[in-house]
Amino acid sequence: MSKVTMKPFSFADESADNIPFSVDTLEPIQETPAEETPQSTTTETPETTSSFSFEEDSPETGEGEEQIAEPSQETPKLTSSDVEFKTLGDFLVESGIWKDFEGREEFEFTEDSFKTLWEAQARNSVGELLVEERNQFGSTANQLIDYLKNGGTVDDFVGNYTQQLDISSLDTTSPDGQEKAIKEYYSSLGWSDVKVKKHIERLKDSGASEFQEEADDCKTKLVEAIEEERAEMLKEQEAIAENQKLEIRRINKSIRESFYKDENLAEREKKELDKFFFDLKYADKQGNKFSEFSVKWGEIRNDPSKYSKFIKFVKNFDSFEESKVVANKTKANTYNFLKKGASLEGATSVEPQKNRTSAPKPFVFK
Q: How far apart, in whole angstroms, are the C-alpha atoms of residue 305 and residue 216?
C-alpha cells in the first residue's frame, strides 16, 4: 500500500511552509537604493573688463594669452523615454540572450511591460537550468525530489524503492532465484503459502524451461507493480500538497477578511495587522521569505520563557478577548464623557425651582 504524508499547516506563507530557519540568520529584504546623481561643480571665472591680462605672466600661460576655463563634461542621464524597448527586446531575443515567445510581434513594449517580460525571462532561464541539473540525477532521484517537495518522507520513498532493488537483484537463472521470484509474486496477490507451494511444485513438474520462464515473468510483473505503486504515491502526495495550498489560501483569505471586519479595530490597526502577517519582509540565505509574524513565532518557539507566556495566553484566550472589548468600551465611554463635559464647560446650570433648597449661611468669624 502506498503511504502519503500530511504536513502541518502554516497560514502565513504557503511558499515558505514548514521551512526550518534560525531567527538570527534572517535579514530584512533591502530595496536597492537609487544611485545618487553627482552634483557638478562649476568653476566661476572672474569677469574682466579687457580680453588682455596685464598681470605678470605665469609659467602655465604664454604672454598675452587669455585664461579660459574648460567646460565641464557631464554625461547625460539616460531616462526611460530615451529607450526603444521594442528594439532592445528584439535584440535580446535575436541574439539568443532571451527566449522567443508567442505574440512578440504584437506585444506592446512599454517600460512596465518590459520589466514584466524581463522577470519572466529570468524565471524561465532559472527553470530551464534547474531542469537540466535535475536530469543529470536520473528519473528516480527526480521522483524523490518531487516526493519530498510535496511533503513526503524519505523513509516511505526508500521503502518502496528498496523493494524494487531487491526484486531486480533476483537471479532467475538459478533455481533458488526462480522459486523466490514466483513465491514473491503470487504472495503479493494474496495467495496463501500452501497454495503458492503447490503451484511451484506443479511448475517444476512442467520442466526447467517453463519454470524459468514463469520466474522471469513473475519478476517483471513485480518490478512493474512496484513502479506503479511509487507513481501512485507521487500522485497522491502531489494531490495532498495541492489541497494544502488551496486550504492555506482559503484560510489566509479568511484571516485577512477578519482583520477588516473587526469593528473594534481602527483602519490603521487593520492595515498594520495585515502587513505584520502577510508582508514577506525577511529572507534567509536560501532565499526563503518570511513575514514579521513568522519571525516572531520563531522567536517564541525557540525561547522557553516566551513559549510559556504563549501557553498562558492561549489558556486565557477567551477572557483576554472579553477584557479587550470591555477596555475598548470603557475607553470610548470615557472619551464621550470628557467630550460632553468639555462642551458643557462655562454653561450655567439651572435647576427647577421646586428642587432648589436654601443653602446654609456661611460662618462669619469675628
A: 64
Q: What are the sequence ranges of the domains in the chain? A: 82-136, 140-264, 279-324
pLDDT tens digits, one per residue of 134-173: 777 778 888 888 899 899 999 999 999 999 999 999 999 9
CB within 8 A of 324, min separation 6: which ones? 264
CA distance 290 to 195: 59
Q: pTM for this one?
A: 0.52
CA distances from 365 to 358, 359, 360, 361, 362 (A): 21, 18, 15, 12, 10
- Report yes or no: 170 and 180 within 8 Å, Cβ to Cβ: yes
Cα 243 to chain centroid distance, Å, stands at 17
Helix, coil or strand: residue 289? strand
| DSSP state at residue 97 | S
27, 33 in Cβ contact below 8 A?
no
What's the rounded Cα separation, in Å, for the pair 87 and 5? 51
> In the β-sheet with 289-291, what is the strand arrangement from edge to edge?
27-28, 280-283, 289-291
As given in the structure block, the three cell numbers for residue 287 are 532565499
Are the C-beta atoms of 17 and 11 separated by less than 8 Å? no
- CA–CA gap between residue 21 and residue 294 (Å, rounded): 10
- Cα–Cα distance between 47 and 143 in angstroms, integer? 81
> 83-137: per-residue pLDDT in tens?
888 888 889 998 888 889 888 888 989 988 898 898 888 888 887 877 777 777 7
Phi first, then psi: what are they for 355, rounded to 5°?
A: -95, -5
Query: Which strand (E) or helix (H) includes residue 291?
Result: strand 289-291
Q: Give Cα 333 to chain centroid, integer Å.
A: 43
